[in-house]
Design a protein that fits this description.
By secondary structure, the protein is an alpha+beta fold. It has a domain of about 80 residues. It is about 15% helix and about 25% strand. The protein has a four-stranded antiparallel beta sheet with strand order 1-2-5-6. The chain has a two-stranded antiparallel ribbon with strand order 3-4. Strand 1 and strand 2 form a beta hairpin. The longest helix is centred in the first third of the chain and has 6 residues.
């Protein structure tokens, strides 16, 4: 049996670590519109974010998703930071089945 020929990256070509960690953008269509969704690897997640689905923090080194509206690209030139939202993967998958999460201020009471 002959050995399989592996296609390797040429030694002189640089490895793009940013693209390897960033993931591939996908367009998802749902009842709430068309969204561009980018998976974020744990190694690329370096800041705290708040998930709009559950209103909990997404801690650094937690794999998650970033989503923004497709029509936001034409309006602002690329889905700028103000339009992108970081979501837990299960929260993104369940967004059509859940109601709107109330955004509280830091000192607001949790119940009542």
């Amino acid at each position: 049996m002959s050995r399989r020929a592996n296609r390797r990256r040429p030694v002189d070509s640089p490895l793009d670590v940013g693209s390897a960690l960033r993931g591939v953008d996908q367009v998802e269509s749902a009842a709430d519109g068309d969204w561009i969704v980018r998976p974020i690897a744990a190694a690329a997640a370096t800041k705290d974010y708040r998930c709009p689905g559950c209103d909990h923090e997404i801690y650094p080194a937690t794999p998650h998703l970033v989503a923004w509206r497709v029509d936001g690209i034409a309006a602002s030139g690329g889905g700028g930071p103000d339009e992108r939202r970081h979501w837990h993967k299960p929260c993104w998958a369940a967004r059509g089945r859940r109601g709107v999460t109330v955004q509280r201020s830091r000192n607001a009471p949790r119940h009542g």
